[in-house]
Fold:
Amino acid sequence: RKEVEQDPGPFNVPEGATVAFNCTYSNSASQSFFWYRQDCRKEPKLLMSVYSSGNEDGRFTAQLNRASQYISLLIRDSKLSDSATYLCVVNLEGSYIPTFGRGTSLIVHP
Amino acid sequence: GAGVSQSPSNKVTEKGKDVELRCDPISGHTALYWYRQSLGQGLEFLIYFQGNSAPDKSGLPSDRFSAERTGGSVSTLTIQRTQQEDSAVYLCASSRTGTDYMLQYFGPGTRLTVL
Structure:
């Protein structure tokens, strides 16, 4: 079983739709969680951290479910510019080496 | 302020040649990471520096790969006797230490093509 798993997609949604991605992780000692965004042929950029209590940033909401070992990203009112690959990143307590998922591709169409 | 920079942005080389890839991290960032990403694949961790030392080299795929960092700043990734399977985008990232160490800032990458 891979340490961090994501559905590669693509998720193909119309503008204005709400879309959600999950990311599962295998190591229960995982401590830190993040979502990064990667545009085509560009470098990954931090989208948001994921806190135990959940967090929201505008149209984006991230949540952590430790019992089931997954994190989620919800995007409301999708924009064309949201089209990208969303990478889940997990880090073990005491480790300085993050584990990246392979990403979920989102395509928002008019 | 300036972000992470990498050079060259593109490198085409012949099989068997050596290549050097450079990374300039954000000023003041003590942690530096090298990753590679093949087409359609996830990020593969290569090596991590804390200052000038490399506590974790576990991701280097073979002894043809080496990296160094000097002055706690610039890092160079060297690939000797390149093979076609080395073709990928090589990404560098830097971060602070302390509670922000996991907030990584990536450079634009070097696209390496081995013919």
